[in-house]
């Protein structure tokens, strides 16, 4: 894996982590799940899942995040 691809993957993971933290914060401040989802541009299920992970012990960079890979045909 080239350095660029590795850096891009790390940036994507960090982006998704920040989204999860933001939706948890919005819900804790009183926003509804669907409102938080709209503000952060994620689906409501992502909000629900992120809040559940947080309530179970917090969020970390690996909790519930499984990057999808695509098969490459040559």
From TrEMBL:
It comes from the Bacteria. This is Helix-turn-helix domain-containing protein.
